[in-house]
Design brief:
With 358 residues, the chain is an alpha/beta fold. The chain contains 15 helices and 11 strands.
């Protein structure tokens, strides 16, 4: 049996969609399971024993219709028995249509049902604390009636050398391994998803004031100036525990560093999803424009905690349309002060790092 899972988009989406492959491997241990993804996201697929081949969707496939056609025809040559489209946008519709897959599964969308043999309704609200991002992917397996217990948890796989390299990097930067280490996702992938820096400084100072821990910053190299600005505003006590220059040289080395950390706090994004896939506790600050129902995965108020302005001041955005919410995002962020949830952060750290496990 030959299977193709399609999931373009960002790292978090790709990582979550690997649960489809993980469960298919359990149900069909001898199947060939391939995964199609953007070239920039393949690092979260590396080492996954449930994926046999990764098909790269490159920039040229987006910019050139002929190149997209060539990719679709190359997929067709593989003669897949099953194609699962977890992306379900124009690019994937074309590829699935060209694939010639015997069975094709995706979400039910008006005007596109003819492309697929199985069209799965997309739920509006999650039924469990797994979140819609997880539940929707698992729903794509329902038409197959798999006789297995579904595993909903995405996973990252590191080699021994990658684990050792991260430990050596900690040693190189003289990280105090006698202390617990907290990774702080200080900046979002874009300004609309970034908690105001002045508030993030308050959170970092609060952590340093209440706990003797190592603090690592997560940010993109392109965000160095913004990261330096946040560091410069931190208290002297916090600066003593911050290892500002400790960064991975690429995404795989960053994953290795994250594996050495004990938990993550900060803006929602790919880093949070990767941390969860490494079984790290998470405290997520959601942007006002985002809805918790999709990406508040596995929230239980203990190991995984999320906060949103609507948890504290729901009247501020009541009855706002999507466009109105987007225009008000900055203003709502300014109203989302750390005082709302600093005690919650303190309890989260205490519970996950310093209280004895049962």
């Amino acid at each position: 049996m030959k299977i193709l899972v399609v999931q373009q988009k960002k790292i978090g989406d790709v990582l979550v969609s690997t649960i489809i492959c993980n469960n298919l491997r359990i149900a069909y241990p001898n199947a060939q399971i391939d995964f199609l993804a953007y070239e920039s996201t393949i690092d979260v697929l590396k080492g996954n024993p449930n994926i046999d081949n990764v098909i790269l969707f490159k920039d040229k496939h987006r910019k050139d219709k002929l190149e997209l056609l060539k990719l679709g025809l190359s997929i067709r040559k593989s003669k897949y028995d099953l194609v699962i489209d977890a992306y379900s946008k124009l690019e994937s519709w074309i590829l699935v249509l060209l694939s010639g897959g015997k069975r094709k599964i995706s979400y039910k969308k008006p005007g596109r049902t003819f492309i697929y043999t199985d069209n799965v309704p997309f739920a509006e609200f999650p039924e469990t604390n797994k979140g819609l991002a997880i539940e929707s992917r698992l729903s794509l397996l329902e038409p197959l009636h798999l006789n297995i217990k579904l595993d909903p948890v995405p996973k990252l796989y590191l080699s021994e050398s990658e684990i050792n390299d991260a430990k050596l990097l900690f040693k190189k930067h003289s990280v105090n391994t006698e202390r617990k280490t907290i990774l702080v996702s200080i900046l979002g992938s874009e300004i609309e998803k970034t908690y105001p820096p002045k508030f993030m400084v308050q959170i970092i100072d609060y952590i340093a004031e209440n706990f003797d821990v190592n603090i690592l910053f997560n940010y993109f190299p392109s965000q160095l100036t913004e990261a330096q600005d946040i560091y410069s505003q931190c208290s002297e006590k916090a600066k003593k525990n911050i290892y500002f220059d400790l960064l991975g040289s690429d995404l795989r080395s960053f994953i290795g560093l994250m594996n050495e950390c004990d938990l993550i706090i900060g803006n929602d994004g790919g880093a949070i999803n990767m941390a969860k896939a490494l079984d790290k506790p998470s405290f997520i600050i959601f942007a006002p424009i985002l809805e918790k129902k999709l990406w508040a995965t596995f929230e239980d108020g203990k190991k995984h905690v999320t906060v949103h302005i609507n948890d504290y001041e729901p009247q501020l955005s009541k009855n706002m349309s999507r466009s109105q919410l987007k225009n008000a995002n900055s203003e709502l962020y300014q109203a989302f002060k750390p005082d709302f949830f600093l005690e919650l952060i303190k309890d989260f750290i205490q519970l996950n790092l310093f209280e004895p496990k049962e």
